[in-house]
Amino acid sequence: MSVDQHPTESDASRRLTDAINRLAASIARHWLAIFNTVVFIFFALPFLAPVLMNAGATGPANVIYRLYGPACHQLPDRSVFLYGDEHFHSLEELEANGYIPPGLNALQRQALRWQGSVEAGWKIALCQRDLAIYGAIFVSGLVFGLLRPALRKRIGPDGKWPKMPVWVFALFLLPIAIDGFSQLFGLRTSTPALRFLTGALMGAATVWFAYPYVEEAMQDVVKNAPPPAG
After folding, report:
1. Does a structural domain hold residue 5?
2. For the chain, which end, N or C, has fewer CB atoms within 10 Å of the first or last residue's CB respectively?
3. Helices (H), 74-191
């Protein structure tokens, strides 16, 4: 067999590059489904923690609580409880009922890792605000997927997607900044309704600000991908 009958290193490298580009194009075609699936799993898994606690499977439940610990403070006075008499417990109520020691600051309550009780219920592994943020990201991602075909048809293959101006995005973030920082510095205490509202505004705004950029980038990947292997 002659030397030129063997695939050269450049041929092998080119085939590998084309395979990687085709894989990237496949991911780019389905990026929204991938994003929505990952967000849904991240949003839904914390609900499993109180279900497991209520069933007596404290080991697996605590794995979920610890898994989400770096992403959320999980403070009991800012969380949602299942299987108890109420879904929300104020700090004063938790202290009065002896669920947590009185006088603890936020860092001490976080370090306590109190997950709940049979009477109070078991807390979801994400706080109220984070549940609203990721829930809104998931729902907004679904809505973006429903509207995307019509937007693609209107924009055309080479058109630019409409973008949310940065200043509008900042306006949507302003309520969560005011609500969160005023509570952080002890100026006031927020409420579950405000945490859900400000979190939902941030989550929805994040999708409508970021996803058009991602869509354009993914479409460029698809356009520049090599043809399917024959």
Report:
1. no
2. C
3. 91-96, 106-112, 128-155, 166-184
Structural contact between residues 141 and 39, judged by C-beta atoms closer than 8 angstroms: yes
Q: Is 73 helix (H, G, I), strand (E, B) or coil?
A: coil
Q: Is residue 70 part of a domain?
A: yes
Structure tokens at 21: 């580009």
Flag whether 185 is in a domain. Answer: yes
81-82 vs 116-117, strand pairing mode: unpaired
pTM score over 0.85: yes
Q: What is the pLDDT of residues 20-79, one digit of tens each?
A: 878 888 888 999 999 999 999 999 999 999 999 999 999 999 999 999 999 999 999 999
In a domain, 141, yes or no: yes
Range of the domain at 18: 12-223
Q: The tokens of 137 are what?
A: 């990201």
